[in-house]
Structure formats: structure tokens, C-alpha cells
Amino acid sequence: MDAPSLRINAAIENENAMVITCFPSVGMVSSIVAHYLIDHLDLEFVGGLVDDRLPALALIQQGVPLPPIRAYAGKPQCTIEGCDQVILLMSEMVVPESLVHKIVWSLFEWSKEHKVLAGVVVDAFAKAGMKGGMEGVDPVVEYVDTDDIDVVGIGCNETTRAMLEQMGIPLLETGVIRGMNAGILGEASRRGLGTMSIMVEADPRFPDARAAAAVIERLNALLPMELPQEPLLEEAELLEAQLKSMMESATGGNDSPSSNAMLYG
């Protein structure tokens, strides 16, 4: 295989879709948000990204094997004009740096072919004074630390920056983003596309369901939905146990830095 390929069920209508990406983040925020959206927006598994350079791993959920980078789709209510479909891309795997640009390029070529309307990148950064523990790919941001859970945004064009301000999300003034999220935002900016990132302050010591709730509260402006807290807290506990088990199986119990670089848990 020469290039990564996003393979989605041919019956899915991809045009005018809003794509939400949830790759590994501080405090497992992106994973918690992804699972919450799948459950509460009734999104269905529709495919995944294939590349022979990715590790041969499958995430087992309720007896079903799933690829490490997978796609879900559905048609929830959307407030962006013209949006009639949501596609969620998610992974618990930290994509190897050598593959990031290849995968990002394939995703944007796919989005161009299928006339994707908008994009949202879910991300998190460590609380002030804490390390993210993301094996060198955690973001570093300069922000005003308040008593609340702080949220900042990045907009890849003028339209998305205006949308973030309307959503009450201050723009990130200074920072460094790495890995898949950096690749997605950089390429979207180069192409002038309507992609934004919502970044939340999270505690890296445990799955931070409250930080995930802060992201979902902001997503309410795009995808109006209820926000019961209890399912989020339960999801965080399940994810923590599942990802630890998956990582231990993949590394044979070896907790060396090199072995942890592939999975975040």
C-alpha cells in the first residue's frame, strides 16, 4: 500500500458533513468526548483508515473488533448552515510522527473529493504547572489560568475564528501544537478551510471527564444536545481500564518510554 486510505461505507453520504476529529489528548479528553458523541448523537461505525505501516491492533468493544483509527457517522441536528451529516474520526493511538503528514494529506484529499463542509478538532492541554504525559506530543499553550476549566480555540480561517468568538471561546494567542492535531490544523490553514480546534485545560493524572464536559458544552453551539454528567464520569472510568489493558497487551507489560509512545492511556 503506497498511501493511507480512509475507507467508509459507500452508503454513507459524505457531502456537506462536519468532521470531528478526536485523537489522543491530555486527560483522555478527546476519547471521552468521542465516546459521548457516539452514544448521544447515535453515530454508527462506518469504517476506518487503512495503512500497512500502522500497528496491527484492534480495539475490542462489546465483542466487536475495531480498527485503531476509525470513523462513525450520523445525522444529528447541526446549527452550521448546509451541514446535514456528522462524521467522527477517532483513535486511542498516538500516530507515529513519520506517518502524520501522509495520513493528514490523505484525509484532506478525501474531504476535498467528498465536499466536506467543516471540521472540528478536539484537543486538551495540561493544567498550568503540570506535564501532559503525552510522550512528547502534548501541546504547550500560554493562557490565562482561572479558577474555572479554561477553554481556548484555534481557527483556520476568518470565518471559524469569528465562530469561536461567537461561541464564547477566546482565541489561543501563543502555543505549540504537535502530532495529528497539528498536522490537521496546519493543512486546513494552508487550504483556507473552515476548521477549528476547541482546546480545554485538563488534569493529566486521570481521565478528566469534567474537562470533556466543558468541550461538549461548547459543542452545544454546533450540535445542540443534553449534557448529563454521570455518563461522562462512567465513560472516563471504563476508558481508563480499557486503554490500560490494551496498552499492556500491546507492550507485553513493558512500560518503557519507547513502548508507551504508540498508545496513550
Key attributes of the depicted protein:
about 260 residues; alpha/beta; Rossmann fold; two-stranded antiparallel sheet; globular; disordered C terminus
Plain-language structure description:
By secondary structure, the chain is α/β, with parallel strands linked by helices. The protein has one domain: Rossmann fold. It has 7 helices and 12 strands. It has helices at 29-40, 97-113, 158-166, 179-191, 209-219, 229-251, 257-260; strands at residues 5-8, 17-22, 44-50, 59-61, 64-66, 69-74, 85-91, 118-126, 140-142, 151-155, 174-176, 195-202. α5 packs across α6. It is globular and about 45 Å long. The relative contact order is 0.19. Residues 255-265 have low confidence and may be disordered.
User: What is the string of helix and strand elements?
Assistant: EEHEEEEEHEEEHEHEHHH
In helices, the fraction of residues equals: 25-40%
> What is the global morphology?
globular
Shape-level CATH architecture: 3-Layer(aba) Sandwich
What's the CATH class, please?
Answer: Alpha Beta
CATH topology: Rossmann fold
The N- and C-terminal alpha carbons lie at a distance of: 29 Å
The count of strands amounts to 12
| Fraction of residues in β-strands | 15-25%
CATH superfamily: PAC-like subunit
| Radius of gyration (Å) | 17 Å
Which regions contain 5 or more consecutive residues with pLDDT less than 50?
255-265
How would you summarize what this structure contains?
With 265 residues, the chain is of the alpha/beta class.
Topology:
Blueprint: E1 5-8, E2 17-22, H1 29-40, E3 44-50, E4 59-61, E5 64-66, E6 69-74, E7 85-91, H2 97-113, E8 118-126, E9 140-142, E10 151-155, H3 158-166, E11 174-176, H4 179-191, E12 195-202, H5 209-219, H6 229-251, H7 257-260
Parallel strand pairs: 2-7, 2-8, 8-12
Antiparallel strand pairs: 1-3, 3-6, 4-5, 6-7, 9-11, 10-12
Helix pairs in contact: 1-5, 1-6, 2-4, 5-6
